[in-house]
Input
Amino acid sequence: MKPLQIPIEHKTLGNGLRVVVAPDSTAPVVTVGVYYKIGFRLEPQGRSGFAHLFEHMMFQGSENAPKMQHIKLVNSSGGVLNGSTMYDVTNYFEAVPSNALERVLWLEADRMRALKVDDENLRNQRDVVKEEVRVNVMNQPYGGFPWLDMPPVAFRNWANAHNFYGDFADLDAASLADVQTFFRTYYIPNNAVLLILGDVNLAEGFALADKHFGDIPAGPPPKFADPSEPKQTQERRGDVIEKFGTLPAMAIGYVMPPRRTPEWCAMGLLDQALHGGRAGRLYRELVLEKQIAVEADGGIDDVFVYDGPTQMTTRIFHKPEISSEDTLAAFDEIVREVQGKGITPSELDQLKVKWRSDYFATLEGGRGGHMPKYGLMHLLAGFTLFDGEPQLVNTILDGFLAVTKEQVLAAAQDYLLPQNRAIVFRKPVEKSAQEAA
Amino acid sequence: MATQVQRTAKSIPELSAEREVRWPKRTKTKLANGLDIILLESHTIPKFHGELYLRSGNAAAAARGTALAEMAATMVRTGTAKHTSREIEEQLRGLGADLSVSAGQDNSAISFAGLSDHAEPLLQLVNELAREAAFPAGEFERERRQRLEEVKLERTQPGFLAGERLRKVLFGSHPYAQVSPSEEQVAAYTREELQSVYRDFYTPENAILILVGDFDPATMQKAAERVFGDWSGRKPATPESTKPPVLKGRRVYLVDLPASVQTQILCGCHAITRKHPDWIKLGLTNSLYGGAFNSRLVMNIREDKGYTYSPRSGVNPLRQYGYFSVSAAVRNDVVAASLTEIFYEIDKLRSLPVPEAELLDAQNYLTGVFSMGLATQSGLLSQISTLALNELPDDYLETYREKVRALKPEDVLTAARTYFDSANMQIVVVGDRKQIESQAELFGEVGIYDARGNRQN
Output
């Protein structure tokens, strides 16, 4: 097994913008990403959903590229683009034929320099975002389960517990002044990383980065709210009504250890043991063997890129004729089994092979079918913003491959505890009530 | 902070010289048993991706029952003559592999990916699944129950209901109208009928094996021959099917979902398959209309009016017939306004030649996105699969870009007039009847359905 040797270089410009270049000439395609260290976790109180609404505003016009120009220029260069808002970061990314690299860097620099938007743009995108929430959450069976259901049950700090898509009243209250303040506070070069991956050479990548981003003024380092949670002493539970689906569902979330600790690596493999597809213990026991559930899956939310309380979460959709209590008891039995006996050496070997294979898939992983190297970009961004070490992409795997079965056992005993978990029950409305509606 | 030197480039940088797009060489062979094998190297990660396609799907089994190929596919991994379900799953994990078995209207497929250093054992497992699936009785009952729950859930999803209704309207008594089974149909499935579908469809004469990834093609070819060489079986007969109806005039089909907070719109008309000589022309026309972020429809009803989050249009190429469709999930009070804009943009493309600059932008978009498939193993696999399953010419990848670039505004005008059949477009709306029926009536006679597909008026 050869060690990973993805070529990566990293520099910091005078204004504090970190730049990471990872050349690979396999295809004449280059992927560019800009990550800002602000996500929905730390958006302003009273402005739930603002980080995401703001992400939409970044496509509405900047200093020299008015509304629609951004999208038009990328598409007409033969490329695709998008952005997304996550817990602790927001990203903007393009994949284009490599002859459009400079154009894309110019565009990203232009909107890092100055946003040029008006009230009409804000009204328009507020409407678009509301339809996004309706199509993804309010008008879908199990919409928002459990990513929107879990935070208010699991957490006490507003940062972790609020509605990340946003209450409509908060979206309506957002003003253009809020947009500009948010931009000035967080969208500064010293709070961002620029990533250039694919068909680019190192010297060219850094020179173009400096040419287009070098003169954007730095800002005062943002003051971030504290996302830490008060100590949890007992299990937390909550109910959410399911309006469309007929299967009762539950999500069980355990708070994870800090990133880049041996416990974190052990939890990664424990997650694989529990949730690793149809061979995972939960699917095998609950769906295949005991046939209590129709679906059982789960995982660790964005395992490499988080900067605050995060969970390993299981989702179970169970048969209506089996009670939630009995389903949970069956789940707990699986947890007790791994806490008592741990995992076998041959199971651990299999988990590591699968983990390695999944990691490679993550690195190459596209997005929407057309975004080569999205996964590599995402990991590089996280390791740069949170650790200052993009090279971790080449070595992070080693920690997982070194985990022992004793460490997996310890992780199960130390972290899969009632006082470390929260449970959301998604309960279908009564059939009679549904038909009368 | 230091004084900033103002050296901002106000003008958009020009594109630099394009680097050549070079598609990797393919190795194509046919074994004595009829199995087609296509191999392609891609060394981006130490893995490989594969598909074992069977050129028969739900449509070929339609005379026997609805979505039988799909249910048979679900059963394939649940046990073989040699291994139990659990052994199969643990073997896959130990090889670092992902595997799924699926079926659509035209094909069934075993799709897989794994580490290059465990390639041959994974091929052996794929071979075992393709030849020796045992359809264990207990597994069948469990999978059937799961399928029953999926089928119930689908009927609460606006996107599914819209797609199903449109297919029923466009395809009438042709098998393509059967999108998903009813609960009663699932309850009536038998192991024996699924096994007979499996025996008929999963044969080497009916199969294509495509492998893309980090391997030496000569070594991989030998491995594939060792593993699949002694498989035998004939190609199944292709059943005759009725022609889809010819639809005249716009009609509206309203699927009533009481208390819906949004309305799913889906409009469609018959178009062409991928083998048709106009396919590329229509692809470019679709891209201008609603196939890209920068397209007219998205700019109009999203970026200008804010009616919707994700409007799009597409050409759906099934093997025998293709159809064009436009979709948008919109606010309840702008259903009529959205439909008006959808037709306005269609009629505009049918009436006026597209400006040269806009055409060039769309040509660049299509050709650029096409070559992104080169950058990943899964991207290459998907491009090669399209070629193989549609029996497109060998040089399709190499010549696609120049064909797109040769198109003129009059080609787009002709394609829009021929295939964006505005006057005969069928309109599906899924939402709360009370809030949207009066808006729907403005566009044609309205048929009302419930979520189970029963006509209500």
